[in-house]
Specification:
Shape: globular
Strand content: 15-25%
Radius of gyration: 15 Å
Number of helices: 7
Largest sheet: 4 strands, mixed
Number of strands: 7
Order of helices and strands: HEEHEEHHEHEEHH
Structural class: alpha/beta
Helix content: 25-40%
C-alpha cells in the first residue's frame, strides 16, 4: 500500500497566522515553494497561503503585504491528510475539494505536503490524468490550494 507519507515532500514548514505576507513571500523564496500551511497559535492548520494569494488577494488590490497577515488571507476549511492514509484517500480528498496541495499530518504535527509534482512522480499516467481532469475541468474558478 502506498501512503501519503510515501509520496509527500518532507520538511514542509508552517507560517504562523500572525506573520505578514511579505515575510511569507520571503519564506517561500527561501524554501523554494509556492504555498505554506498557515498555523494558529496552537500549531493547528487554519489555512494554506499561496504565492498567488499574495499577488491577487493583496498586492493587486493595493494592500501592503507588510501589513496584511497570513491569517487574514486564510479562507474556508483547511484540508489535510494523515501520513498513513492510502494514496487513494489522498486522490479522493484532492479531487473532492478541487485542491492542488495537501498538508500531511502525523501525530497532530505537519510532516509534509503533497503537490501536483508529487502526484506526477508517484502515480501512473492515467491516474494523474484522471486527477488533473477532476481538478481542472470543473466549471468555476479553481482554488489556488
Amino acid at each position: 500500500m502506498t501512503t501519503a507519507g510515501d509520496i509527500m515532500h518532507r520538511g514542509a514548514q508552517w507560517i504562523p497566522a500572525h506573520e505578514t505576507l511579505d515575510r511569507a513571500a520571503q519564506l517561500m523564496r527561501e524554501l523554494g515553494v509556492g504555498a505554506l500551511p498557515i498555523s494558529d497559535e496552537n500549531e493547528r492548520l487554519c489555512g494554506i497561503l499561496t504565492d498567488r494569494d499574495i499577488v491577487i488577494g493583496c498586492v493587486a488590490v493595493g494592500h501592503d503585504p507588510s501589513k496584511v497577515t497570513a491569517g487574514e488571507m486564510a479562507q474556508g476549511t483547511p484540508r489535510w491528510i494523515e501520513a498513513n492514509a492510502d494514496i487513494s484517500d489522498v486522490l479522493r480528498e484532492m479531487k473532492e475539494h478541487q485542491i492542488r496541495r495537501l498538508p500531511v499530518i502525523e501525530n497532530k504535527r505537519l510532516v509534509g505536503m503533497i503537490s501536483e509534482a508529487d502526484l506526477a512522480l508517484n502515480l501512473r499516467e492515467n491516474e494523474v490524468g484522471q486527477w488533473a481532469e477532476s481538478v481542472y475541468a470543473r466549471t468555476g474558478a479553481p482554488t489556488t490550494h
